[in-house]
Each structure stands twice: as C-alpha cells, then as structure tokens.
C-alpha cells in the first residue's frame, strides 16, 4: 500500500545518500574494481543509478527529477555498454511504460468488446421482434380506436341526456319564473294602489297638521306677546307699588319728623311758640284743635 511504498522509498533514498557520500572521495577515480574495468567512482555511479531505477519501479508516482536524472546519464555511467545499469534501468522504465499502455489497451479493448456484444444483442433482439411488433402495433391501434369510439358514443349519449334534462329544467324554470313574475307584478300593482290611497290620506292629514301647526304657531306667538305684556304689567305694577310704598313711608316719616320738630319748637319756645306769643299761640292752638275736631266729625 501507500505506507509500504513510502517506507521503501525512504530506505532507497538513504542508501543513495550514503553512496553519494562515499563518492565524494577524490581518490575514487584512481581506485579500480576487482575486474579493473571500472573505477570506484563509476561503480558507485552505477549503484546509485540502479537504486534510482529500483526507486522509480517501487513507487507508483515517482519524482519527475528522478526520471530526468535517469534519462540524462553520461558515458561514465555505462551509456555505451549494453550490460550497464543505465541500460538495465532504461529497459525497466520502458517495460513499465509498455505494461501500463498494455493495461490501458486491454481496458479499452474490454470496453469496446462489451459495447460490441451489447449492440450485437440489441440488433439480434430488434431483428427478432421487429416482425412481430408491426402486427401487434396495428392490432393495439385498432383496439385503442374501438375503445375510444365506444367511449365517445357513451359520452355522446350521456351529453344528450344532460342536454334533454337541462332543457326540461329550463322550461320548468321559465314557467316558474313567469308565474313568479306575474305574482310579483300583481303585488306591485296592489302596493301601488295602496300607496296612492294612503298617500292621499297622508297628504290630507299632513295639510291638516300643517294648518294646525300654523294655528299653534300663531297662538304661541300670541301667548308670547301676552306673556310679555303681563310681564311688563307686573313690572309696572311692582314699580307703582314700590313708589306708593315709598311715598307712604316718606309721608309717614315726614309726619313723624314734623311732630318731633313741633315738639322741639314747643319745648324750646322757638318760632311762633315763643314767650311773647304764648297766648296767641294757645288761642290759635285751641282754634286749631276745634277745627280739627270739627273736621274729624
């Protein structure tokens, strides 16, 4: 799975890093392998390339830089040697690519084969049933038309019944409305005659009421006028009574004042009641008393 591929890739990357560290030695060009055909540097390069190829094959999604590095190996890594690691890695890459293409072609072939078989089966079924489909379709169409014809006839008969019933109902309704209209017209005429009679009666009563109202208005005006006159007379009578009472009181108090003043004059001997005129005054008084008595008699 993905975890195992990651672990293998990490191990291979660690090994490649160690080979690169060993290749940093400057004496690797002078040292040779046991066959004395390659230097140690070239052997290390071949091992690094081999591990890169293994890493490429072990991972589903290899690093693009790894692919470019494998495709750009120089002659020192055995580019001209058909038995070198470079040729081996390149062949493995080509085989992997061809296997992927073959798998894709197989998938496409299977899809096309299934589609071809499906179309073939459909064509066979179509050819098998097309001969029976047309008569069945014609028979089905005839039956459908017959069913529609029966339904149409039933619907026509039903509509005719509805129309006939509707016409009968319309005639009855028309007769009823005519009778009802005549009845309403007769009632309207009766009410109009009654209205005319009652209108004349009400008009006469209204005229009488208006005449009576005018009479009452005139009487009301007369009553108001008389009431005003009575009010004026009452005010005048009250004024006269007050004047008479005032005059009576004035006369009463005037008599009292005159009597009081006469008594004062007599006691004080003032005026004609003085000492020199006492006798004369007495005589005059006696005469006056005699006259008064005579007048009382």
Automatic annotation (TrEMBL):
Name its cellular compartments.
Cytoplasm, Cytoskeleton, Flagellum axoneme
Q: Which Pfam families match?
A: IQ
The answer to whether UniProt assigns keyword Coiled coil to this entry is: yes
Q: Which InterPro entries does this UniProt record tie to the protein?
A: IQ_motif_EF-hand-BS, IQCG
Show the segment(s) annotated as Disordered: 271-297
Residue spans making up a coiled coil are 88-115, 181-226
Query: Known CDD domains for this protein?
Result: IQCG
Q: Where is the composition biased (Basic residues)?
A: 274-297
Kindly list the GO CC terms recorded for this protein. Answer: cytoplasm; motile cilium
GO BP terms: namely: cilium organization
Write the record's keywords in alphabetical order, separated by commas: Cell projection, Cilium, Coiled coil, Cytoplasm, Cytoskeleton, Flagellum
Which coarse location class applies to the principal site listed for this UniProt protein? cytoplasm
Membership in a protein family: Belongs to the DRC9 family.
Protein's recorded name? Dynein regulatory complex protein 9
- In which organism is this protein found? Culex tarsalis
């Amino acid at each position: 799975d993905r975890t195992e591929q990651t672990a293998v890739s990490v191990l291979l990357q660690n090994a490649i890093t160690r080979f690169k560290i060993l290749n940093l030695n400057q004496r690797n060009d002078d040292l040779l392998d046991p066959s004395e055909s390659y230097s140690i540097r070239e052997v290390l390069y071949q091992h690094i390339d081999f591990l890169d190829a293994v890493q490429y094959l072990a991972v589903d999604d290899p690093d693009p830089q790894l692919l470019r590095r494998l495709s750009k190996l120089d002659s020192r890594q055995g580019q001209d040697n058909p038995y070198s690691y470079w040729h081996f890695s390149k062949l493995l890459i080509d085989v992997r690519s061809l296997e992927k293409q073959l798998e894709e072609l197989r998938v496409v072939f299977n899809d096309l084969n299934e589609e071809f078989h499906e179309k073939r089966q459909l064509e066979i079924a179509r050819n098998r049933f097309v001969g029976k489909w047309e008569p069945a379709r014609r028979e089905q169409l005839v039956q459908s038309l017959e069913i529609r014809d029966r339904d149409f006839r039933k619907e026509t008969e039903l509509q005719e019944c509805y129309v006939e019933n509707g016409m009968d109902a319309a005639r009855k309704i028309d007769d009823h409305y005519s009778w009802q209209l005549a009845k309403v017209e007769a009632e309207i005429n009766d009410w109009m005659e009654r209205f005319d009679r009652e209108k004349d009666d009400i008009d006469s009563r209204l005229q009488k009421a208006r005449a009576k109202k005018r009479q009452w208005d005139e009487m009301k005006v007369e009553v108001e006028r008389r009431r005003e006159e009575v009010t004026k007379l009452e005010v005048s009578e009250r004024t006269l009574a007050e004047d008479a009472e005032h005059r009576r009181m004035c006369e009463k108090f005037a008599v009292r004042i005159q009597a009081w003043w006469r008594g004062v004059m007599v006691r004080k001997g003032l005026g004609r009641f003085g000492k020199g005129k006492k006798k004369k005054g007495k005589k005059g008084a006696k005469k006056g008393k005699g006259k008064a008595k005579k007048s009382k008699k």
